Amino acid sequence: MEDSSPEKKIKEIFFKIFPEENDSTFKMDKKQLEFENWDSFAHLQLVSKIEKQFNMRFEIEQIMNVNSPNDFLKFVNNQ
Known about the structure:
The protein is mainly alpha-helical. The chain is built from 4 helices and no strands. The protein has one domain (7-16, 30-77).
């Protein structure tokens, strides 16, 4: 059975936006500053793709407080 957990889906989105990431370098608690190319544009791409994947909308305050894949996961799990 394929793992389609929210965590797995978020990880796949991060891999699309940060192709330099892989299973050995990626961690759900990795901070924004630890991602080489996580700038404001990448942040918007992440928000957009995660909103689309999970059919949800982030509040501005949430968008500004996301600093790691885990932060996205918390919002997805609490929607």
